[in-house]
Amino acid sequence: MEITRTVTEGFDTLCLKGDLDLNNAMKFKTLLDIEVKNAPKILVLDMSGLNYIDSTGIGILINAMKTLKAANGKLVLLAMPPSIHDLFGKTSLLKYFLAAPDPSHLKLVLGTD
Amino acid sequence: MAPGNKNRKLTEFQERHIRMMAVLLEYDVFDLRIVEFVREAELEYFSLLDKIKFLESKINIDEKTGLLKYRPDYLTNILKTVSRIYQGLRMNNFHVSFVRFDIDDFSRFNSRYGHDIGDQVLVALATIIKESSRPTDYVIRFGGEEIDALLPSTPREGAATYAGKIFGRIAQMTIPRDGETLKITVSAGISTMDYAVPENMIINEASVADSFSRLQTEADDALYDAKFQGKNRFCIYSADKKEEYLKIRKLYVK
Fold first, then answer.
1. Cα–Cα nearest to B121, from B132, B133, B110, B137
2. Which of B6, B73, B108, B204 is the one with CA 20 to 30 A from A43?
3. Chain B residues within an 8 Å CB radius of A18
4. Is B17 on the interface with A (CB under 8 A)?
5. Given A19, A55, A87, which is nearest B17 (Cβ)?
6. What is the number of other CB atoms lying within 10 angstroms of the CB of residue B197?
7. Which residues of chain A does B19 touch, with a Cβ-Cβ cutoff of 8 Å?
8. In this predicted model, what pLDDT tens digit does every residue of A12-48 receive, in sequence order?
């Protein structure tokens, strides 16, 4: 999996590309921990390049979302591919995450529009 | 499915883990340690799947009959399973029986009707034996026209009942050929071993391999006896007939 940093609509963004699974989930957690430690108010994960995410990867997203929330920050999942969006829907996880279909919806989702 | 594959999908097992994490989140008791447990469980799960795939690729199946090919460690597997299942329990009598079937005058049959018909006979016999066996039994194509059955948890009487049932079906078996109906007969020898399973059984593989060889030799003795008595029957090995078996074997060698 490749992870790159960028800024989307003024928000710090990590772009995920490839497969996030139990083989690389811990590496992803280390990178995410560094971002979360800086206590950003908003952190965006651009998932448009993500092909696959497994239970360990999702567990790490839940943990990041909770950690940011505890520090009054927010995690936004941007441009989830349909298969991953469906998975979040059928496992009832969508209601706990902020999700934006594309960058133009980010401010709306965050209530800063 | 390999990473990078566009069609990579989660298994039911993984989805169940995600649902479990969603429930923990709902009750605000989600903890990072859960992710580590999930990861460990999934690593173990996928390792087991790999192991099963590996073992399946190692299983030797005889293409013609669909039966197992001979391996010297089948009895070891049986006893290992028994020691696992009955761990901590003492069992004085765990019986394993062995039946060796051999088609009577099969060389002559093949010479007369050809090998294609001979193969049909072999497949039909294999099917009867397989259908009459339990999933826990090992049905093995031992050689040309010999088929073995290794029967766990089966005393001598049980093996005789099993063989009787198979002989009943063989008597009904017919092979059609150019308007003709062909029939065959089979002889068989039965042997049995009793194993004492102590509370914590340690399997000595060399000794079990010897035991398996002995089961086969004794079933062979009984099989020769069945042939000597006129074929189309099964005999049960008896330690009292050792001298007789030697004489019969000598006759057959001659």
1. B110
2. B6
3. 3-4
4. yes
5. A55
6. 18
7. 91-92
8. 999 999 999 877 888 899 988 888 888 789 999 999 9
ipTM: 0.92
The answer as to whether B2 is a domain residue is: no
- For residue B7, is it within any domain? no
Identify whether B73 is part of a domain: yes
- Residue B224 CA: distances (Å) to CA of B8, B187, B245: 58, 9, 8
Q: Please, what sign has the CA dihedral across residues B42, B45, B51, B52?
A: negative
pLDDT of res. B200: 65
Give the domain extent around B247: 68-253
Residue B6 lies in a domain: no
- Nearest residue to B192 via CA among B228, B234, B227, B132: B234
pLDDT, tens only, B160-197: 999 999 999 999 999 988 888 999 999 999 999 998 76
Of the partner residues B6, B14, B30, the one whose CB lies closest to the CB of residue A54: B14
**Which one of B15, B34, B39 would you mutate to disrupt binding with A, by most A Cβ within 10 Å of its Cβ?**
B39
**pTM of the full structure:** 0.56
- Amino acid B13 reads F
